[in-house]
Amino acid sequence: MLSTTKLEDGGICFLSVPIQNMQIQEQGKENMFDITFDNDTDELNIPILKVIGDSIEPTLRNYMAYKQLFSWEGPNFFVDYVVFIDKLINTSKDMNGIINNFLENDEAVTQIFNKLRESIYYSPKDFYYKDIADQVNKDCNRK
Asked: Pfam families attached here (predicted)?
């Protein structure tokens, strides 16, 4: 998957949506992992992640370790979410409103996601966002 700046150059629009507005249709529950892509409008809807302070990296690592330990319990949304976001933000210019950063600089957040991605295992075959990534890439390549 391409970074946000490259996807924008390919005609993809990013809509950062507060998590409260992203809901699992059947259950009506808020879901930070509910990333959607609309082929008709070329809009990628991503819940806004708030990076509050320096504790974000160990917090994310702990969640990822927990989810990898219990990965047999179903889709590994959290790890796949981190991988998806890492693919989107390669530089500080790629943050593009999908992350509200309260740290000193955007590059620090970019480095956090890049480091997180290096330390986890994910299965490209079982990647939760595979269909969305394929749709976005196909739409971007078409243009």
From this structure: DUF247
71-120 pLDDT per residue, tens:
666 667 778 888 898 899 888 888 877 787 776 778 888 888 888 887 77
Cβ–Cβ under 8 Å, residues 102 and 108: no
| Residue 25's pLDDT band (cuts 50, 70, 90) | very low
Number of CB atoms found within 10 A of residue 139's CB? 18
Sign (positive/negative) of CA torsion 7, 2, 143, 48?
negative
- Delimit the domains of the chain by residue range: 4-142
Q: Which helix (H) or strand (E) holds 7?
A: helix 4-9
Burial of 110 (0-12, 13-18, 19+ CB in 10 A): buried
